[in-house]
Amino acid sequence: MLQRLYQWTMSMADHPRALWVLAVVAFVESSVFPIPPDVLMIPMILARPSRAWVIALVATVSSVLGGMLGYAIGYFFYEALGEPILSALGKADSMAEFNDRFNGVGFWAVLIAGVTPFPYKVITIMSGWTAMPLTTFVVTSVIARALRFFVVAGLLRAFGAPVRAFIEKRLGLMFTLFVVVLLGGFYMVRFL
């Protein structure tokens, strides 16, 4: 089933309304959909490199709006279901402590999930679940998703089809390594 969904998503890159399809895919991927918008972006940009920045912008805006839906899912379902259950089990204090710890590093969690292969939807829902400040969530999501989608668009615009395999197989790893080096640098500056 996932393979058929992937193939359908790929086939939509040639559709006359591909930009709208990309907006929908980027929106729902941020909260529930398993296929990343890159699957549509790559063939769309290769077909029309002059539209790379528009395609990246549509993916960014739609993804952030979808992330806000994920945030709302976490926020409203936690209050309605999770909190009463945890209170009944005597775990409300443990959850409050977890929320404080998560929100203390929330900027980094959203940034890392937004640019690496880690499922962004998990962090969008967790951000709402822990009641991360909405402004922090939105600003970090804009930075992370723009970085991811505009780097992909820039690479495809500059290098075309030859860079496609690199993006599909190694760009997530490169983003992950970048984040590890960045965090390691901050750690060294702070503690050494």
Automatic annotation (TrEMBL):
InterPro entries associated with the record: DedA_domain (IPR051311), VTT_dom (IPR032816)
Source species, domain of life: Bacteria
Assigned GO CC terms: plasma membrane
The keyword Transmembrane appears for this protein: yes
Pfam families, A to Z: VTT_dom
Protein keywords: Membrane, Transmembrane, Transmembrane helix
TM region(s), chain numbering: 54-81, 102-120, 132-159, 171-189
Ranges where the VTT domain occurs: 51-155
Protein name: DedA family protein
Species of provenance: Marivita cryptomonadis
Source taxonomy: Bacteria, Pseudomonadati, Pseudomonadota, Alphaproteobacteria, Rhodobacterales
